[in-house]
Amino acid sequence: MAFNLKEFAIGCGLHDPEGFVAGVDKLYELVIETNKTMNLTRIVEPEEFRIKHVADSLAIAREFPEFASEYLKVADIGCGAGFPSLVLAMAFPNLKVTPIDSTGKKAAFVDHTAQALGLRNVNVVNGRSCELNRRSRFKHQFDVVTARAVAPAPVIYGDADNFPKRKTGRFILYKTPEQAAEDLPALEIMCAKLPIKWHVTETFSLPENAGKRLFLYSGEA
Questions:
Q1: What tens digit of pLDDT does each residue of 79-123 get?
Q2: pLDDT for residue 33
Q3: Which range marks the domain in which residue 24 is found?
Q4: Which residues are annotated binding-site positions?
């Protein structure tokens, strides 16, 4: 039985799952067309794209339902082709999403695609998080800092530790169980003298047994 993205979206709290699925179809077309001239993804089959890019990106709302209901400012570090940033912006108009990428062509693609999809809640930034981390425009501005398939969590945290809002802001990072097991000891050492504690969600499976995932996230100690 084929993967049902609409049902998955409903389970993640979307208010307009049909509109979201239509947007995903358009996103797929834009990614595949651009992929002919720019290396965006190796995942090009429609169902695999929906599972490994879209459902994977959307799953954060199942673990953290506030994504579907609260006004949140979200920074997506190393946004690449726009996963999770474009998916989250399409799914949840209540979010204000800032995709960040150091590669100009990828940032330009995400910006163009956001406009093509009519997403007014996306503001793309071309830059390195380690440099943006020192700028007042980015310091303590975000409710959530996320990243998916970019770098080990200690690197992400070290490059963007000023991004989250004081006290309430946090990192929520997409990881496999193996990655989280490798990242946690280093994070705990880095944050040993800080009022920060790191946690992991329960491990879950992507649809059609497409892989194991969890979220590694920060909180007050």
A1: 999 999 999 999 999 999 999 999 999 999 999 999 999 999 999
A2: 96
A3: 5-220
A4: 78, 83, 101-103, 148
Q: Using one digit for the tens of pLDDT, what is the confidence trace for 197-212? A: 999 999 999 999 999 9
Q: Tell me the pLDDT band of 1, cut-offs 50, 70 and 90.
A: low
> What are the binding residues for S-adenosyl-L-methionine?
78, 83, 101-103, 148
Which pair of tokens denotes residue 56?
């994977």
- The total number of structural domains in the chain stands at 1
Residue 152 burial (CB count, 10 A): 15
User: Which region, left, alpha or beta, applies to residue 13 given φ > 0 means left and ψ of -120 to 50 means alpha?
Assistant: left
pTM of the model: 0.97
Q: The tokens of 118 are what? A: 């009519």
First vs last Cα of the chain: how many Å apart?
44
The CATH number for 155's domain is 3.40.50.150
